[in-house]
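In response to the reviewer comment on reproducibility (Comment 2.3), we provide here a single inverse folding case reported in full, input and output, so that an independent group could reproduce the run without further information from us. The structure tokens appear first.
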């Protein structure tokens, strides 16, 4: 399905819809059911992001304890020109609608190196793309914005092919993928990279468990609200019957798997029924939990290794002054 002129588009700003709402909803139901059948049960992080959850996430990115957004922005502010020169791309494809300032820094860097042909933000949420596209159209008049509503795990082959594309996947969103989803995503990206294309990947780095736990369990309780809001979203969108006040937020460092796990811990024995998932029910005993997110933390070497396992070479790697976050530019060997 492809509709290049849906609501929100304007001259110079097209939105191509490759993902129907029904297909996406079905995909999310399947994914959620699969997670609920695991022991312990898990739910995908997509349920964080209704309007209220997206606002809470924006607040998280401003918290003292939550360093990743600031650190990644600092890397881009210091190195966008160098990244742009090495990538020498004329199209920027951004997976996940980026935050205004990160996208701006990258586009400025790329535009300084030569005329940019297009900016292609890709996201599963059309409203997020309308916002991102309108912002970029305002700030970079004359730059064609060709947004795509897509599931980037499924639609990579359908993205526009330019002479030299940079595919940016920032924010360490890849850390929210399971190891197998991460491996197959990287494999897919590598398969669809042309020789002159590059991948720009943002990853959060391993650091002290104290800092990591604080980043996901902040003193003001914003992350707790963000996590607990996902129950309200599932009650609404999956016909679930979470007793929201019977679950508390927790964030735990799982050293073995090098990841933070966000959990909803039950205060008392709970049975949760999901009417929208064919009446599937889970039992969570007091102090038992549901995992709502993993956030994997990497080392610089591990990122290089995972890229080389899919046949990509590291072109450059950059960290912020505190060594908290990593940007990696990768390409097929020349
Ligand atoms: C979107 N993602 C990379 C965030 C992270 O850090 O894993 C989501 C998040 N969860 C809690 N705080 C932020």
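Designed residues, in position order:
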């Amino acid at each position: 399905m492809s509709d290049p002129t849906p609501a929100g588009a304007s001259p110079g700003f097209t939105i191509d819809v490759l993902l129907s709402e029904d297909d996406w909803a079905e995909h999310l139901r399947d994914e959620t059911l699969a997670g609920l059948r695991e022991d312990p049960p898990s739910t995908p992080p997509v349920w964080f992001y209704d309007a209220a959850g997206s606002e809470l996430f924006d607040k998280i990115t401003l918290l003292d304890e939550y360093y990743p957004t600031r650190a990644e922005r600092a890397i881009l502010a210091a190195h966008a020109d160098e990244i742009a020169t090495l990538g020498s791309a004329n199209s920027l494809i951004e997976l996940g609608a980026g935050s205004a300032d990160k996208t701006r820094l990258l586009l400025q860097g790329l535009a300084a190196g030569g005329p940019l042909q297009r900016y292609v933000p890709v996201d599963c949420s059309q409203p997020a793309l309308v916002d991102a596209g309108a912002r970029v159209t305002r700030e970079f008049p004359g730059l064609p914005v060709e947004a795509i509503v897509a599931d980037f795990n499924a639609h990579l082959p359908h993205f526009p092919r330019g002479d030299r594309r940079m595919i940016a996947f920032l924010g360490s969103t890849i850390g929210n993928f399971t190891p197998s989803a991460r491996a197959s995503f990287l494999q897919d990206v590598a398969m669809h990279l042309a020789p002159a294309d590059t991948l720009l990947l943002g990853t959060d780095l391993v650091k002290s468990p104290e800092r990591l736990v604080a980043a996901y369990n902040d003193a003001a309780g914003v992350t707790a609200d963000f996590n607990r809001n996902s129950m309200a979203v599932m009650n609404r969108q999956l016909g679930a019957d979470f007793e929201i006040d019977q679950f508390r937020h927790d964030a735990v460092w799982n050293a073995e798997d090098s990841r933070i796990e966000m959990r909803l811990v039950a205060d008392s024995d709970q049975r949760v029924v999901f009417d929208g998932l064919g009446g599937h029910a889970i039992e969570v005993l007091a102090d038992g939990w549901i995992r709502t997110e993993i956030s994997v933390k990497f080392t610089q070497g591990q990122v290089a290794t995972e890229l080389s396992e899919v046949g990509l070479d590291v072109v450059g790697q950059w960290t912020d002054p505190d060594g908290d976050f990593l940007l990696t530019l990768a390409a097929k060997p020349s």
